[in-house]
C-alpha cells in the first residue's frame, strides 16, 4: 500500500515517533511524505520515503494529485488544529480529495493507530477492489 505522511510543524515529532513505534508495519509499504516530515522520518526512523515539496510549497497538492489519480491508499496527516496554517486551502483540498476518492484518512494519533492496526491485519484489501 502507498501511505502518505504529513504533519504540521508542531506535530512532526509526534508523527515521527508514531512511525518509529510501528516501523515493522510501515517498512512493508511505500511511504510518501511532504518535505520536512519525510526528511525527519528518513533520519530518525531509517525507512525509505519518497519526499515531495513542503506543504506550503505544493507538497500537499502533489499528494492530492496522487489521490486524484487513485495512486494513494492511506493518508496520515497529523494536523495542528490550534495554529493557523498559511496554506489552509491546500489542506482543505487534500482532505476533500480523501473523501471524494474514499481514501482512509487519520488526522490524529488515535485514528492513525486504528488505521495502522487495520493495515497490519490486512483489513484494507477492499482498496484493491475499489480502484
Describe this entry's structure for a reader:
There is one protein chain. The protein has 131 residues and is α/β, with parallel strands linked by helices. It has one domain (2-130): Methylglyoxal synthase-like domain (Rossmann fold). Helices cover 50% and strands 15% of the residues. The chain has seven helices and five strands; from the N terminus they run E-H-H-E-H-E-H-E-H-E-H-H. It has helices at residues 12-21, 23-26, 35-45, 59-68, 88-100, 109-121, 126-130; strands at residues 2-7, 30-33, 50-51, 74-78, 105-106. The protein has a five-stranded parallel beta sheet, with helices on both faces. Helix 1 packs across helix 3 (35-45) and helix 4 (59-68) packs parallel to helix 5 (88-100). The model has no long low-confidence stretch (mean pLDDT 92).
Produce the secondary structure layout:
Layout (H helix, E strand, L loop, with lengths): L1 E6 L4 H10 L1 H4 L3 E4 L1 H11 L4 E2 L7 H10 L5 E5 L9 H13 L4 E2 L2 H13 L4 H5 L1
Parallel strand pairs: 1-2, 1-4, 2-3, 4-5
Function: Catalyzes the formation of methylglyoxal from dihydroxyacetone phosphate.
Catalytic activity: dihydroxyacetone phosphate = methylglyoxal + phosphate
Protein name: Methylglyoxal synthase
Amino acid at each position: 500500500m502507498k501511505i502518505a505522511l504529513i504533519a504540521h510543524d508542531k506535530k512532526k515529532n509526534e508523527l515521527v515517533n508514531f512511525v518509529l513505534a510501528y516501523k515493522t508495519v510501515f517498512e512493508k509499504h511505500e511511504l510518501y511524505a511532504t518535505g520536512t516530515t519525510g526528511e525527519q522520518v528518513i533520519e530518525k526512523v531509517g525507512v525509505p520515503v519518497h519526499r515531495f515539496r513542503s506543504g506550503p510549497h505544493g507538497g500537499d497538492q502533489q499528494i492530492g494529485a496522487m489521490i486524484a489519480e487513485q495512486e494513494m491508499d492511506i493518508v496520515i496527516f497529523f494536523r495542528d488544529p490550534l495554529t493557523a496554517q498559511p496554506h489552509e486551502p491546500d489542506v482543505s483540498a487534500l482532505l476533500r480529495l480523501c473523501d471524494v476518492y474514499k481514501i482512509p484518512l487519520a488526522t490524529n494519533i488515535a485514528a492513525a493507530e486504528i488505521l495502522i492496526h487495520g493495515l497490519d491485519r490486512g483489513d484494507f484489501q477492499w482498496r484493491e477492489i475499489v480502484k
